[in-house]
User: Fold this.
Amino acid sequence: STLKLVAGAALPAPTPPEGSFDKQAAARGQVVFNNKAQCSTCHVPPIFTEPGWNMHKASEIGIDDFQAKRSPDEAYRTAPLKGLWAPQKRGFYHDGRFASLRDVVNHYDEFFKLSLTEQEKLELVEYLKSL
Assistant:
């Protein structure tokens, strides 16, 4: 048997289970994702990562460079967001430093000075769980 690799081929992320997120809140969170929070600048739909060169220095994303220093270009990859609803054993982010999606949202809200409201944060998390 011969394995053929197709350029751009990847396993699709599993679909979130019915009832695993609030659909109305997720719809509002999509607006926050694409507008006020500007998440879609780097996590570009429909792939929810950055097309092309998707690497960022630690200073661009507001974290230390401990893990980045271990990679050849000393940068972090823009992680794809699909499948975030699945249970996480080690937390979120490149090294599991954030225990919840809300912690990730809080980090970017502070770092990028987005001034998200509590409601917008909740809706954004619901949207992320819907991907």
